[in-house]
Known about the structure:
By secondary structure, the protein is mainly α. The protein is built from 11 helices and no strands.
Amino acid sequence: MPVLGLAADAPARTVPDTLAQRAMACTLCHGKEGRATNAGYFPRIAGKPAGYLYNQLTHFRDGRRQNPGMATLLDNLSDSYLREIADHFAGLDLPYPPPQTVNAPRDQLARGEALIRRGDPARQLPACADCHGQALTGRQPAIPGLLGLPRDYLIGQLGAWQTGLRHAHAPDCMAQIAKGLTPDDVGALATWLSAQPLPADTHAVAPSAQPLPMRCGSVAR
């Protein structure tokens, strides 16, 4: 007997069995198609290098990064399926929003840019651009871009490395770098990065022919 008020011959609703459909669970936090926004805490994942995205998915699943929601979502997913998810979002070529930070203090911007471009050899801090590319759009296959990310997210991740809440494969170069930064350094870096527009070419650059300034376990995998 048909349910009152419903047509007996109403077509069944179906959901396409595609990776894009299954990946919609990620968009609840990371925004439509993984592009996020520049106003919140959650980072953009669309267009990031596939190797970087895969590393982060396994880090969350295996406890090297701490986020209960991500851990629950990924707990029973295989390495091969996580690679599929990483490849899916890496392949999305979408526009970026305008910079989040405006009217930041000039001295703070100058301090941030100096660390980004030149580092601080006296403290054994390499320039961010030496690894993340001169345009800061990332480097294939596993180094992410630093532009288009919320300021609070950048501060949170550097803080997580400083306090041991975030880990990568050994040797964990970012943990070593972050622990050499002062609170003022972190604020300046996050402020400058979140104030920059994206270049015309937002893609990660090719792997460098020169060795990186320090060994990074996640890049070598």
